[in-house]
Amino acid sequence: MTIVGFCRSNCYSWHRASERCFQLSPCLSDPARRPSLGLKVALVMLHLIYVGVLFLFGRDLISKTKKEPWYTAIYLLLFAATLVQYFFTSGSSPGYVIDAMRAVNESHAISRKASMTSNQNGSLIIPVEDTQSGKVILGNNTISWAKLVMDMYPPGSSVRSWACTYCNVIQPPRSKHCHDCDKCVLQFDHHCVWLGTCIGHGNHCRFWWYIAEETTLCIWTCILYITYLKANITRACRWKDAIMILLLATLSICLIFLLLLFLFHSYLVLTNQTTYELVRRRRIPYLRGIPERVYPFSKGICRNLYNFCCASSSIYSVEPLPTPEELEAKSRPYTCLDVLSCCCC
């Protein structure tokens, strides 16, 4: 009886400890998010291993740190900033359609109630922005989510055609349901397994900065590894040299992947596209009849960069489909006059 009671008390204490751990770390309580947590731990461990081996084997780096401490300080600062940006991006919201719909409907209900109770309507800002006009919808012009979204599609479109069968919400253009997150995402780009979240309107800029920092850190680390091998490698291959060569080979493969990913997303930013739109262009209904070299949502390089970098994350962006006149204008080749007048930007 004593052994049984001891086992029961241990099981009960373990159950309470696991519940507290799940409350402090929601990722552990959700079985769907545990694999992403394991990937995050593995990614952090890889960073620590690559940097730790440099300081463990590289005596030249330690001596250089004593002579020029600013060099190592900048490198370690970039290392820390990359990890912080990684967790900052993974914990950010990509901008869900359901949140934008609730914000619009709540503001619409508040404006209707205010107009019924008082003749003086205050200026109430809805956190939804029309990217074509660049204006934020105000209180006097509030409309419901269904009306707001259907106005972005061609006349005569049916609500059922653009309604998500999983979330039961009307999707604005450039939105898609993510089966991993089980939510519709505004300007859906892709679902990043390493980050454990979707990349969309709300965190695409943060994702781009993370790739830029990760690529810079990888290049710098490769330079440090090559410098070590040039100074210390001998004809008789030591176990330290073999480890450094193996790590450098794997790091070079990661660098090629990061460079391609960075260039690819930079191209998407300059043309105002998403990965989903580029890969599945022929399957998306509102992009089927548009030529591949025409970017329907592009507003010029300068305007695209401004909207991408300076857009407020607290404002949900909704973008209507371009009209046939706008598509015809974008399909025309640029002339010298357009370049001089910066119309292409």
UniProtKB/TrEMBL annotation:
What's any GO biological process attached to this entry? Answer: protein targeting to membrane
Q: What is its EC number?
A: 2.3.1.225
Which keywords belong to this entry? Acyltransferase, Lipoprotein, Membrane, Palmitate, Transferase, Transmembrane, Transmembrane helix
Top enzyme class, one word, equals transferase
Q: List, for all copies, the residue spans of the domain called Palmitoyltransferase DHHC.
A: 163-280
Reaction(s) this enzyme catalyzes, per UniProt: L-cysteinyl-[protein] + hexadecanoyl-CoA = S-hexadecanoyl-L-cysteinyl-[protein] + CoA
Its domain description in UniProt is:
The DHHC domain is required for palmitoyltransferase activity.
The record's annotation in PANTHER family points to: PALMITOYLTRANSFERASE ZDHHC12, ZINC FINGER DHHC DOMAIN CONTAINING PROTEIN
Q: What is this protein called?
A: S-acyltransferase
